[in-house]
Write the structure tokens for this entry.
Amino acid sequence: MLPVSGRILRNFQRLRLTRCSRAQGETKRQMKYILVTGGVISGIGKGIIASSIGTILKSCGLHVTSIKIDPYINIDAGTFSPYEHGEVFVLDDGGEVDLDLGNYERFLDIRLTRDNNITTGKIYQSVINKERKGDYLGKTVQVVPHITDAIQEWVVRQALIPVDSDGVEPEVCVIEPSTTGEQKTKPTQNSVRELRGLGLSPDLIVCRCTTPMEKSVKEKISMFCHVEPEQVICVYDVCSLYRVPLLLEAEGVVGYFKERLNLQFEANSRRLLNKWKEMADRYDRTLETCSIALVGKYTKLSDSYASVIKALEHAALAINQKLEVKYIDSADLEPCRQLDEPVKYHEAWQNLCSANGVLVPGGFGFRGTEGKILAIAWARRQKKPFLGVCLGMQLAVVEFARNALNWSDANSTEFNPNTKYPVVIDMPEHNPGEMGGTMRLGKRKTILKEKNSVLRRLYKDCDYIEERHRHRYEVNPEMRSNFEEKGFRFVGQDVEGERMEIIELDEHPYFVGVQYHPEFTSRPMKPSPPYLGLMLAASGKLQRYLEKGCRLSPRDTYSDQSGSSSPDSEIVDLKLSAILTQES
Ligand code: GLN
């Protein structure tokens, strides 16, 4: 946690009190803050609890935003290795942030900005900049009060930024300060005592357990932590994350917050959480499995591909399929492994060949790229559904150049700066030497000119789309015609018409590459079109879906949290997904 965490927490309590008293004479609505902080060990789903609390309050008709506070001195997550930290999540404004912000965006169907992720580095940077400008009027700048005030002001400012598509100012802000990630052994009692030592009394104690908590345990925690038994919430292991908001709701969390924060809403949250229940039930009921080979580099840590996996899950759920991800370390597919590690080599190929579809995600650096190219070649020739994301698309271009255009030396200049056929090249924006924040980042427009492209149809025949980017290299536009003559088409470009954003291959059930990262905007009830296309193709349903005019679940508009969706439309949609399952 930030070195001054205690003061920050205390300041929040003071802030709340001053705001309350000031508000008595005024009509201005007050922001309500919910602070979620860790207790015993890290990595047990604090982020999920925070997101789920937001979800149930949003389902009561409130506008909810969220802020994540991280202890590290890095300005942002842009330079993090996925080996160590898991995926770097990218926002619309190009902010490279902690992957927990992805959970908030997905659960709440909101769009955050880089300032929703505070780091120690960002705070110090802002304070030092102010000091240089002379804003502190010659005073000594200290941790207390200058750093603590900077954090507080940041939160208060940022909480007001609209995150919903209706542009309404939020009413509730869920704040999650993460701890440094080390294993802590002190049990709940100690952490609550520590919190009290900082002048804070918990309103709720959320306990993670494998099975539902026994009454006596709840009473014991209540007694030793000096809270009512109703303030002890048990979150036991459930079969899908979709159940967590339901679980919290069943534990009475909505009623508690309504009273504690004096929230104004009449809604019956149980009814409004119906969509989540339907999703959770559907997840439990799906029988058919569809497997996707994820051919990547950081396969040891599944968090490295967190949003990719989520996007696959959303797509699978929408078409009633159970997702099975086969993680393949692409280096294991390379011929040198045959002698060094024959078992790994054969297992990797066995996994690849037995999957229903192949996904090559984004990545950086040379290691494993030749293995990815082999996987792509296999998918192209065997007509296996394939999706290449960012680096995955760039390597699909390299593969086609080498094997279909017979440019055997073709490569990306990222991996061979001297190649005779530079089919993927540096972008002018690329600034070698500086790593942080030098990429083409964030939301950009892609124009979908080709009416008959599969992806355009999957995107509901839109003329353009806006997706998030994170790359330094791009397809060399000079070589475009050589590819297109052979049926390897570039069906989406940037606004200037120069940057290749989407590739599609003729006479293949689904061979698609995208320069952007569609996984960052996938939502449980709004699956991302390129991922949906992959899952549909891998489960043999794509043709049918396209013939049906790409209609799957009109009611699956997650943004509609007002409860106004008619039950009839839900029935129709359910039937439609059922039809899709049966007719494959
Ligand atoms: N390394 C490639 C580039 O920088 C791909 C990046 C990515 O996959 N996110 O362009």
